[in-house]
Amino acid sequence: MRGSAKSYALVAIQFAALIALAVTGPALALKPVWLALALAGVALGAWAIVAQRFINFNITPDVKVEGFLVQSGPYRWIRHPMYASLLLIGLAWVANSFSWLRLALLLILVVDLVVKLTYEERLLTAHYPAYAAYAQQTKRLIPFIY
Questions:
Q1: Which of 55, 86, 95, 96 is the most exposed place for a label (fewest CB within 10 A)?
Q2: pLDDT averaged over consecutive 10-residue blocks of the chain (146 residues)?
Q3: Phi, psi for 78 (deg, rounded to 5)
């Protein structure tokens, strides 16, 4: 399935926010607590990619025709662990080296990812009959909360 203009726009905003966060301060959190949070984000993202078996990995929110519904690994608890991993990393960057600009960039990333995951969930619900039941049993980004 080819990506839509909306999908590419959401990805462009996501990458722009992440790059801007990385270049407006240290790209590596040096304070131990924020480094640990960033590494947790990297680990969560890697775990999500492995759980997808690389076949489902897609930067755009569009559903791959040959894809399948993943409900193992971090997907047992949250539906969007890749987005959660980006938010953990972004939060670590901002907390490690705070500025109002970096906070604004993080908020842009949060809004973009929430819009992106909402759009993606509509596509997943239309493509996978089991997605609605799966969504009832899991949270979007934060286990047991949201």
A1: 55
A2: 83 98 91 96 96 88 91 97 98 97 98 97 95 97 92
A3: -135, 145
